[in-house]
Amino acid sequence: MITKCLFPVAGYGTRFLPATKSMPKEMLPVVNKPLVQYGVEEAIEAGMTTCAMVTGRGKRAIADHFDISYELEHQISGSGKETYLASIRDVLDQGVFTMVRQREMKGLGHAILTGKSLIGNEPFGVLLSDDLCINDGPGVLAQMAELYKQFRCSIVAIQEVPAEETHKYGIIAGESLKDGIYRVDEMVEKPAPEDAPSNLAIIGRYILTPDIFDIISEVEPGANGEIQLTDALQIQAQRGCVMAYKFQGRRFDCGSVPGFVEATNYVYENIYSAS
């Protein structure tokens, strides 16, 4: 069983300025719950109860969220307002939270390498809180954890995107083994539409084998001068095996304002109002 999940949460969230000038973008609430908590709940559901956070400057609110607030607990003790804390209490009861600080923003690959000391020599999940995934059944990480039992290699979650949007994503191409599962041959980070090998885009869910750390150490800066995880996964695919999985569920790009508003409306209408 995969028991650890890495959360790269050190980014600046510039698309949400000025709100993110002093508040982590991962703490932006979709209705009444911050984005990062949705991600942690998905990881815990998948059995990944050790949540390793790669944080940065100005991210203290994330650590505080996954801790007891004695003053707040005391103030609302015995009142009906205690029910509002039920979901985060469940998370705190089930999860273990570790943190390390990423001192420089050098890309997703660098963030994951920064988390090596929290993970050790074992397979692990990676969840990007910007991508909110809503499912009627098992969450995306739980689906991927089941797939890992079969393939025992790194797995990336993918979805089809319009051709004109390939420049926003890592794009894969590969052999279709069965419906929704591909063996990856090629990965390109943010290609122009005319250069994209397909329209299958990687979204913010991964399961990675521990050799990825050594591979990231070899990778030269790529797109935007950053150390790209996609480049490391391309090497891993050439040396061994990387699978891509077209997941079940609905994904919202909460790293953009339109996607965040869409997610908020969906959660309010379909989940919050029905509870």
What does this structure look like?
The mean pLDDT is 92. Strands 8-11-9-10-12 form a five-stranded mixed barrel. The chain is built from ten helices and 13 strands. It has one domain (4-272): Alpha-Beta Complex (Spore Coat Polysaccharide Biosynthesis Protein SpsA, Chain A), CATH 3.90.550.10. With 275 residues, it is an alpha/beta fold. Helix 8 (212-218) crosses helix 9.
Outline of the structure:
The chain has 275 residues and is α/β, with parallel strands linked by helices.
**What is the CA-CA span between the terminal residues?**
32 Å
- Which CATH class is shown? Alpha Beta
Secondary-structure-derived class: alpha/beta
Oligomer: single chain
Strand content: 25-35%
CATH-scheme architecture: Alpha-Beta Complex
Count of alpha/pi helices: 10
Order of helices and strands: EEEHEHHHEHHEEHEEEEHHEEH
Q: Shape, please?
A: globular
Share of helical residues: 25-40%
With strands numbered from the N-terminus, the spatial order across the biggest sheet is: 8-11-9-10-12
The CATH superfamily turns out to be Spore Coat Polysaccharide Biosynthesis Protein SpsA, Chain A
Number of DSSP strands? 13
Q: pLDDT below 50 for ≥5 consecutive residues: which ranges?
A: none
